[in-house]
């Protein structure tokens, strides 16, 4: 049973959860525009791919906003399945992008806009992921905690893209970005497995 303190704190925590998700949504919508401009100007596959990743984060935020608005256990399990699908799409995107860049040896032009945005995105996503982890734990909400890991992956991906852009521009190591992408593929695949396992556990009847 929820204690009196918990009952009083829950509305505040829910408002924080909504604020975190709307902030994530707004940042990634803006990112679609900024990264599209930067990718075209630099002819950068990495920046274009990072813009596509923003779509996954937008979808994940929408899922969590719906879940925080209310719903039963079945709706929560459905939200976890959607987040698992989001991680799966992220893994496929990273695998395809990294393989393509390595295969063609594509070297983008330097992009001050792309470098600045990815650096800012890394900072913002790590801060949002930390907030979601804390609020999700306080609410005991697995969907918010899981989407927080999606946000963490987004921050790690921003660092990988940023590192690739810097190393390519400074020392000509064009392969640094796709190499980092493969590391993140392994992380995303692990998260798919964990999310699906959590969904099965919640679906299992209590004994």
UniProtKB/TrEMBL annotation:
Record's bilayer topology term: Multi-pass membrane protein
Broad class of where this protein is predominantly found: membrane
InterPro entries: Cation_efflux_TM, Cation_efflux_TMD_sf, Tmem163
Gene3D superfamilies referenced in this protein's UniProt entry, alphabetically: Cation efflux protein transmembrane domain
Transmembrane segments: 20-41, 80-106, 112-131, 152-175
Compartments where located: Cytoplasmic vesicle, Secretory vesicle, Synaptic vesicle membrane; Early endosome membrane
Gene Ontology terms for molecular function: monoatomic cation transmembrane transporter activity
Gene Ontology cellular-component terms listed: cytoplasmic vesicle; membrane
Top-rank taxon: Bacteria
Residue span(s) of domain Cation efflux protein transmembrane: 108-195
Family designation: Belongs to the TMEM163 family.
Descriptive protein name: Integral membrane protein
Taxonomic lineage of the native organism: Bacteria, Bacillati, Actinomycetota, Actinomycetes, Kitasatosporales
